[in-house]
Structure formats: structure tokens, C-alpha cells
Amino acid sequence: MLKRLLCIIVVAFAVYAFTPVKTLSELQISANKRFFTTADQKPFFWLGDTGWLLFSKLNREDAEKYLDVRSKQGFNVIQVMVVHSSKETNAYGDSALTAKNLAQPKTTSGNNPNNAEEYDYWDHIDWIVDRAADKGLYIALVPVWGSVVKESKYTPEQAKTYAEFLAKRYSKKSNIIWMNGGDIAGSEFTNVWNTIGATLRHEDPNHLITYHPRGRTQSSTWFHNEDWLDFNCFQSGHRTYAQDTSAKDLKYGEDNWRYVNVDYHKTPVKPTIDAEPSYERIPYGLHDVTLPRWTAADVRRYGYWSVFAGACGYTYGNNDVMQMHKPTDKGSAYGSKGYWYNSVNDPGAKQMVYLKKLMLSRPYFERVPDQNLIAGKQGTRYNYLLATRGEKYAFIYTYTGRNIAVNAAKLPGTKVKFCWYNPREGSFSKAVILPKKSVMNFNPPGQPVNGNDWVLVLDAV
After folding, report:
1. pTM higher than 0.85, yes or no?
2. What is the per-residue pLDDT for 376?
């Protein structure tokens, strides 16, 4: 009986190993340079999750579960660190590097998951990337985390050899996005980041490349004009307004829409995205675990603010999930107390798809940010209103459920159809048609309070 069971298991893994991998459409930049598209020019709204330690912490069974949940929830991009430590090992004890040398990835001959002598760190990454493709997920690979380069002082020559290895291994994978950098300012080890970016571009010209910067900075500060950078990223998390006091950083506080404004007006035009806002369940400012933690309402606010300001998508994060915290861990970062397999279903994660649903409900590529839709005061901090529109529609987001005065003349026609979109439930209220006036006032459901967020949806009639 046991022999038969083992045979079944081996056959099952053999099926995994030899089943053809689903091919996804390689992503492209839209004609207006603001968004992503598939190869057949269909809109691609980036809805990402920071599964940073997926490759190193999860075995095949758990990785499969994680990818399955995120795919069913509507996510389409997973951001992952390839090498998070010079001593990196995965769930099977396989090392990423030989002698902690970035230029010497540790590989074996063969890639049979049933043979420990053949199945190495990189084979495990291959397996996860392929399983992600089968579930319609793109993988944004961070080649090497910034702190690793800083600690080991890797040279541009080592970086070039490593980037060539990555490009050769993954250029044929259809679901790859390159996310250079890794929580570090581009002013540190600039030659290394430029070398990685330029090498990836030369060796793998078909996949998009960006740069993941340190907190409260943006890739455009250092790399906007580099040929290898296809789109910009910024990291708006994880401080509150009161905590954002660093003299060397932009003092935008929680106003992540301000980063979008900066990138949106740069030339040449490139898409931009908040690749790391404050995470659900993580303490304000990260390090003091006695402070309050960011909630689902907060991650919604970051999402709608940045997208309505002109971003091409949004990346969600969860404290327990990003580090794949599990019961066997000896400790956790940033006061994580929950486990990834529970927190993957937190309210904020489930609500993210509603943002994607709304943005794809109207003509996508014509959308522009337009604060002129708002009549009167736009508000400050949590009372700030964000407006975006297409040729015959407009969306205005309020985080607090405050009244909204609209310059309706921005829309064509003599009548306006309006309804309310609920970011917590992904539902539209019953639509009402009104005669169009130069200024129209709308009062969201409920009393004004943080987290009573709504989107006013206007369609020209």
C-alpha cells in the first residue's frame, strides 16, 4: 500500500514537471505611454501583491496555495525578491549563491523536483514562476535586494555576470517583469543598478523593467532618462504624516498621489505605480510595534488616491504575507503575529479587486487625472478629493464620505447619470439621471468619517 502511494506521488510530480506551461501575453507600454497593455492591446491594470519572500520561505505545496488564492482574488502581479540575503536558502535548504558570491549562482544539473540532488534554489524559482503563469499571474522579480548589495559591496562586474545569468534563464518565460533595485536609494551603488538594468535590457529586450526604491522616494529621481527603465515605481509607505520628517526625503506624508503628480509631468512620458504603500497589519512607521497598524481602509485610500492621480495600477501589501510568516519561524519582522495563510484573506486584500473592477468598467486608455472636475476646495490630507475622467465619464474619490461639488461642464451632454461605487463591497448604487448644471453637489451615503470612502461615478447622457 505504501509503495503504491509513493508511486502515485511521484507520478503527480512528474505531471507537474512535464505539463506544458501556460503562455501569458508579454506586457507592453500603451500607445499614450501611461498604462500597460497585453500584446493584443487589451488593458492591463496592474494589481500587485508583495509576496517578497515567496521563493525562500514557501515549499511547493504552500507556494501553490498562495498563488491560487491571489489569482482567485483578482491579483495579476506578484512582487518577489530573488536574493534577499547573500546566505539565502529556500524551504528545502538549497542555497542561492556559491560562497555568497552574486556572480556564482549555485545550480545543479537537472531540475527534477523528486530528486534533491537535482532540484536546486533556481529550479524552485522556475517551478513557482511556471505555476504562477498557469494561474494568470505575472512575477515581478527583484534580482537582488538593496541591503545585500550594500552589505556585500558587489561590483558592477559581478552584477553584470549575475544579470546575464538571470536573463538567460528567464527571458523565455512569458510572465516576467524585472524590478531592479530593492528598497534602496538609486544614489547608492548607482553603477550596480545601471549595470543590472542595462544588461537585462540587452539580454532580455522583451520584458518590462523598473526600479524599486527606498521608502518615500521614486525611481524617476535617478533613472527616469535611462533607456532600460520602462516605467517608474515609488514607495510611499510606511510612515504617517507626523512620522514623515526625514530631511533627505520628500515630505509627502501619506499623500501618495503627490508622487504620481511628479512622475506624470516628466518627459519622456512613462507609466508610474505605487509599488509599496503602507501594508495592511503593519505598524505605523514599521519599527515601533506598540503603535496602531494600517488597516483595510488605509490600503484602499492609497490605492484609489494613486490610481485616480494617474497611476497605471497599484500594489497591495500585508505584513504577515510579505514575509510569509508561519508557525515554524523563530521570529518575525515588524511585530507580525498572524500567519500568511490566514492573512492572505484579510479584508484589504479581498477589496483590492474592486479597484481593478472599477477602472476596467469604462474606456481605459483615455483616462486622465483631472482635479478641475472638483468645484471649490479639494481638501487636505484625509479630506482630499481625487478626480479622474475619460471623454464621457468621471470618477471622484472621497476617503471620508464628504460632500462633493463637481464642475459638470467638463462632461459632454445635457444630462448626467450618477451613482455611488462602494470600495468596500465593489457595488454600484442605483443610477440617477439629472439635468446637467455648471456646478452640481453630491452627498455620499453615511456620515463623514475616515474610512467611509466612496467613488462618485458620473456618465454623460
Report:
1. yes
2. 84
